[in-house]
Design a protein that fits this description.
The structure holds two protein chains of two kinds.
Chain A (H helix, E strand, L loop, with lengths): L17 H27 L3 E3 L3 E3 L5 H8 L1 H33 L3 H16 L2 H12 L5 H8 L13 H25 L3 H9 L4 H29 L3 H7 L6 H10 L4 H30 L5
Antiparallel strand pairs in A: 1-2
Helix pairs in contact in A: 1-12, 2-3, 2-12, 3-7, 3-9, 4-7, 5-10, 7-9, 7-10, 8-9, 9-12, 11-12
Chain B lengths: L1 E12 L2 E12 L3 E5 L6 H9 L6 E6 L2 E2 L10 E4 L11 H11 L4 H14 L15 H13 L5 E5 L7 H18 L2 E6 L2 H7 L2 E6 L2 E6 L1 H6 L4 H6 L4 E8 L2 E4 L2 E4 L5 E7 L5 E3 L7 E10 L3 E8 L2 E8 L11 E5 L6 E4 L10
Parallel strand pairs in B: 3-8, 3-9, 6-7, 7-8
Antiparallel strand pairs in B: 1-2, 1-4, 4-5, 9-10, 11-12, 11-14, 12-13, 14-20, 15-19, 16-17, 16-19, 17-18
The chains are: A mainly alpha, B alpha+beta.
């Protein structure tokens, strides 16, 4: 999110004040609802908190020291990024072939399946996640009960309050972003390219591996960045599937704010999550741009 | 011996017949052009030969073997696509090498053949360029090299020059012809551009609405078009109503000695075969110059005559050209005129 405010300074052109005035409303909104709250959160993370006296407006590094040295927080952040990486990998593994298959469908079906793929975006994330809970939640979950009644399993499949459960539910929620991103890359593919490869003696597998995949990799990578960012900062799904027992960075920050009421510590966790995410995403983006600049510009 | 045979080839898409009973025999080393307006079935025919479309009926045989049952990857044909369809993530050399890799040819030989083929199309210095950094003409050459390097049994060209500008197109025509002559590869060209087909091909297959109108050498198709469609599609032509009586055809106020049965006929005359004359011999048509357009090496006239509007093309020889509104008399040799029986309602139809 960078606000491009520099006006054209080409020789002989005097842009005047109009461009500044035109971006002013958007800029004010951006500063008001994004930058100021972030700055306040960062500032908050340096305050002190006491169970009896509440928040004290001093500047100390206590919260940061706690987050940095306590193994509990290490575990939280490690879990958060482990889940985000697994969700991203799962989305790429399933979403890229899904986008390819749907894009190759005939006309009525293609539209229908695009709608099916985008369907999850139309339903509230809470409703979708509770759906998973209904299917797999302990002994009463529909699928678990069916499998037990069929005698296929004796104990319910562990899903609720497990990392696997969180990863599956998040991958389901975030799949459309990957599919759309790969879809966009596939649209740029010359449909004749696959025929050209076939005429040169390439089989279907060689065509996908050597011709299609390298061309949609930028789409997969940009989809991965979106999915990773959303998975690492997701709140609703981890809090419903993972609950108190399986906390991630965002649910941890929430608990610090609303249960422990230790706002400064929550702010430190939230700030660290933001900084780590920005660093990872910017780093990945750099890498992608450098790697593919020659071919795709 | 006949190399490629298309026998009664038909392709239907639902109710629409894209290719309707096309039969064609191509000799080894021959350069054949499929020529026709868009939607005439020429590209569908090419796609059936390439294997991207399955024929609804009919057979394709290559060197005596049935080709329809062979998957596209095993047909060993080189194809140059209209969009070039280069692999954008590979350099020119990698693009050209791809077909050889698929054939499992060893690295040393592969590199040698890629180098030779790129040199053949004049791109020796561009081996490591990516397609996106090449001009249209260069991309076109890479596509050609990629198709040629596998030593295809047939080279299929799908509107290969239509994305190039006029000057480059002319250059590539000459070069394409030269390369085809050098390698002796049997070549099938699909094009809607009649001048391209005539410049490149040994034989032209003129197609219209899925059917073959005429298969002939370029000059034969031009001089003796088999159907009105061919006459109008290959170059410009005048179609005038004629009345034949006792071996004389009356057109407007002129009459020509012909050998044809009596009745209403249609006469077709190429614009460049018509000359201006001063005398009033019987075989002349009077008219006035409606329009004249200067085109450098020639003048294009539209002459209003009793028989209708006649297009005349005259070489710019430096002699004074008749001005607009001037009265003129037109003549042409009887043998330059094609005559056919007029179908009701077709009189005066001209392209």
């Amino acid at each position: 999110m960078t606000a491009e405010t520099s006006p054209g300074t080409a020789s002989g052109e005097r842009p005047g004040r109009a461009p500044y005035l035109l971006v002013l409303p958007a800029l004010l909104l951006f500063v008001g609802v994004v930058l100021v709250p972030i700055a306040m959160t960062v500032l908050l993370s340096f305050h002190e908190w006491d169970p009896y006296r509440g928040i004290e407006t001093v500047l100390v590094l206590d919260n940061w020291h706690e987050v940095w040295s306590d193994g509990y927080f290490h575990e939280m952040f490690l879990r958060t990024f482990r889940i985000a990486v697994l969700v991203t990998a799962l989305c790429a593994l399933l979403g890229a072939p899904e986008a390819y298959i749907v894009s190759r469908m005939r006309d009525p079906w293609r539209g229908i399946f695009v709608l099916v793929v985008l369907g999850p975006l139309l339903i509230s994330v809470v409703a979708r996640t509770l759906g998973w809970a209904l299917l797999f939640g302990g002994h009463s979950g529909v699928i678990n009960r069916a499998l037990i009644d069929l005698g296929l399993i004796t104990d319910p499949l562990p899903f609720m309050f497990t990392e696997t459960g969180v990863v599956i539910a998040l991958a389901h929620v975030l799949m459309p972003f990957m599919v759309l991103s790969v879809w966009a890359a596939l649209q740029r593919l010359d449909p004749q390219v696959e025929n050209a490869a076939a005429s040169l003696g390439a089989g279907q597998f060689a065509i996908i591996r050597r011709i299609v995949l390298p061309q949609i990799i930028p789409g997969i990578l940009s989809g991965s960045i979106i999915v990773f960012a959303l998975a690492a900062s997701a709140f609703a799904t981890p809090s419903i599937i993972g609950g108190r027992r399986l906390k991630v960075a965002s649910t941890l920050a929430y608990d610090e704010f609303l249960n422990t009421l230790d706002w400064p510590l929550g702010a430190a966790v939230a700030t660290l999550l933001l900084v780590a995410l920005v660093a990872i995403i910017v780093g990945c983006n750099r890498l992608v741009e450098r790697r593919f600049a020659e071919v795709f510009r | 011996m006949t190399f490629l045979v298309l026998d009664d080839l038909t392709k239907r898409f639902g109710d629409h017949v894209a290719v309707d009973g096309l039969s064609l025999a191509v000799e080894e080393g021959e350069f054949v052009a499929l020529l026709g307006p868009s939607g005439c079935g020429k590209t569908t025919t090419l796609q059936m030969i390439a294997g991207f479309q399955h024929p609804s009926a009919g057979a394709i045989t290559l060197a005596g073997r049935d080709l329809v049952a062979v998957p596209p990857a095993r047909r060993g044909l080189g194809i140059v696509f209209q969009s070039y369809a280069l692999f954008p993530h590979m350099t020119a050399a990698q693009n050209v090498a791809f077909g050889l890799e698929m054939q499992g040819i060893a690295r040393a030989e592969r590199e040698e053949r890629v180098r030779q083929t790129l040199a053949l199309v004049g791109l020796a210095a561009f081996a490591d360029r990516f397609p996106r950094r090449m001009s249209g003409g260069q991309q076109q050459r890479v596509a050609l090299a990629r198709a040629l390097v596998i030593r295809p049994r047939i080279l299929l060209l799908d509107e290969p020059l239509s994305n190039l500008d006029a000057k480059l197109r002319e250059e590539m025509q000459i070069e394409l012809r030269q390369i085809q002559r050098t390698l002796g590869t049997t070549t099938l060209l699909v094009t809607h551009d009649q001048s391209e087909a005539m410049a490149l091909a040994d034989r032209i297959v003129v197609m219209n609405q899925g059917r073959v109108e005429q298969i002939a050498s370029p000059d034969e198709a031009y001089e003796r078009p088999a159907t009105p469609f061919v006459a109008s599609f290959l170059g410009k032509t005048n179609v005038l109503g004629a009345e034949v009586r006792s071996n004389r055809a009356s057109i407007g106020d002129g009459s020509w000695a012909v050998s044809a049965g009596d009745g209403a006929m249609l006469a077709t005359i190429r614009p460049e075969k018509i000359a201006f004359v001063a005398d009033t011999a019987p075989a002349t048509l009077s008219g006035t110059v409606r329009n004249r357009i200067f085109q450098g090496d020639h003048w294009l006239y539209q002459i209003a005559t009793p028989a209708g509007l006649v297009t005349v093309l005259r070489q710019n020889t430096g002699e004074p050209a008749p001005a607009e509104g001037a009265p003129v008399r037109l003549t042409w040799r009887s043998e330059d005129m094609g005559l056919r029986r007029a179908e009701p309602g077709r009189i005066g139809a001209r392209a």
